[in-house]
Amino acid sequence: MNRKAALLFAAGCTWLGLVAACAAVAGGTGGGGWTNARVITVVPAVDTYLNTDSISRSMWCDSPTNCTVAYSGARSKVWAVSEVDGSWHTPVPVPGLTGTYFMLDVSCTGPGDCLAGSAGVTGGLQAAQVAAQLNGVWGRGRNVPGLASLSSGGISDVTALSCGAGGWCAVAGEYGSAGGTLYGSAGHPLTPYLTTVHGGTWVKAEQVPGLAALKAKGWTSTISTASCGTGGWCAAGGSYRDRSSGRPVPFVVTGRDGTWGRAHPIGNAADGDTAITAISCTTLGNCSAVGTRATSAGATWPFVVTERNGTWGQPEAVPGISLGRTFVAAAITDLACTAPGDCVLTGFYGATSEDCGGEYNFCYQGNYSATVPFVASQVNGTWLAAREVPGLAALNRGGITLITSVSCDTPGHCAAGGLTTGLGESARIRGFVISESDGAWGQPEQVPGLAALRSVGSEVDFAFCDHDAGPAPECIAIGSYGTARPGSPWKRHLFATGN
Q: Which tens digit of pLDDT belongs to each residue from 198-207?
């Protein structure tokens, strides 16, 4: 899913929020075993747009009781809130770091040692910025080291950030010449960059090795996703315009201990307009990636590609996807892998309409008027057929339902969350949770306990599972909800629920 894609509200749809936070969960349980939502804090209402893909990038957990979340507040100031061994600390500002909710990333090598990235404003220009947390204390934000010499004073941003348990972090993004925008434009194409940091020592930002020889001049190329594991190795993926055909081609690039290899095309220009949108790596040389392919007729199809022992295979269509007159597109929203060849992806079938959103006047990514979620599993390296999630149709009264995040700790043991729309102008978006046990998905349910908190709209943005969590819940779902009083501004609250 394109990181800049947003859930766009038409006139009159003004509520939904910004970010979410991980939390230790307390209180009673709902009918499906999920605990009642617990309030974490109130977030300033500075935006009326929702971007589930970007929001989930701004949080990290290595257990249900150890998490870090970054979010933007008034005047684009970045805040961070951390949970350590089940205790949440007071949110603190990240000094010198600015950003917006849809350009904010965070990842950690362990509790209290994190890296945040954003696209803040420096000297009147939007510039990629990073800030590091060491032993629970955030240092001052700074521009990505070495990037100024590449961009020659132009714009830049952070599009992907990932840290591994071995202490290495990868930062990726795009930069352009002065006068350009972060969306790219004629005469001002964007170029992707990569950099790494370990123990506070940065490797200077560089262009993706080998990409210049592949891509067409004058066209924007991007990096949209990154994943780091143990042992100092990382992988990233994106797309470029092919030099000969001018069509988008997906690529991946891998690195170790701060040294990146050459860009590796996935497929070729004859495969159609394609791009890598998510990547998940479990061990050195073993990753899975997903993306989308656009056809000349305007339909989009999801594809998967797997790296085994350092060798990337060919892209393949997700089995079981069937489009027709009702659903003209399919896309992937999240990917989670637990071991080489064992992964789960979530996505949706989509219908488009000029009258986006119908009765509720709601649209997703600008033109989807209806969506139906699906899941697909990879078992021992083989992808099984995608299937619709049982029970979600009963919640999908307003036409749009999305699984925004999925997490698994072992194959067949996962949790997911998302949102669904209601009917009528007074209806609101509702967050839901669902879990999988022994390979079977249970019934989804609206987040329990939100009605008692006077929620008038909610969403689940992030899920995390850890089977070795001990007596604490094994999975946690994280989201935000809104409250309102007549004549008063909306308030956004962060919450979590566990299973």
A: 988 999 999 9
